[in-house]
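Field guide to reading this record: the first block holds the primary sequence, the second block holds the structure written as discrete tokens, and the final block holds curator observations. Each block starts with its own label. This record concerns Small ribosomal subunit protein uS5, catalogued under organism Pseudothermotoga lettingae.

BLOCK 1 — SEQUENCE
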Amino acid sequence: MDEILEEELEKKESEEFEERIVEIRRTAKVTKGGKTLSFRVLAVVGNRKGKVGVGVGKAREVPEAIRKAIAAARASVVEIPLYKTTIPHEVFGRQDASKVLLRPAAPGTGIIAGSTVRAVVELAGVQNVLTKCLGSTASVNLALATLNGLKDLVSPEKAAKLRDITPAQVLYGARKEA
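BLOCK 2 — STRUCTURE
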């Protein structure tokens, strides 16, 4: 009975998250006996409703590396606040030498981003955003920088409570009262 419930839970979890392989890279370790080949995979999982995760997997075979990357991505899933179809405010994500600027955009703008950042943002559920990558463009670091930036997002309600103003003032700027 417990096995059936566990299987159903696993099916629901796998159906809930969409998986995307961003990069498969062949790496080589040079040894006395020659080169030892292995593969590194960067995967992103998300439900397009505010949950997203990034993972890296390494193995001698591609399918095993993919499995490990997806497992790592599922383990790193974080929830982010969304405001309509965009992010609530501008945010800057960093990972090592990679930096990513994420800006909210008007409806109809779409996702203005490179392939790595686009994968993370799309699977998070953001439909309109402007991004700019600064520094290193290594795909793993860009994906992690984007995730770090998304982690730093604060919902308008929470920001308003912290700053003791209304959520509208957070989103549209403070207006002078006559």
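BLOCK 3 — OBSERVATIONS
The chain has two domains: 2-78, 80-172.
The longest strand covers residues 18-31.
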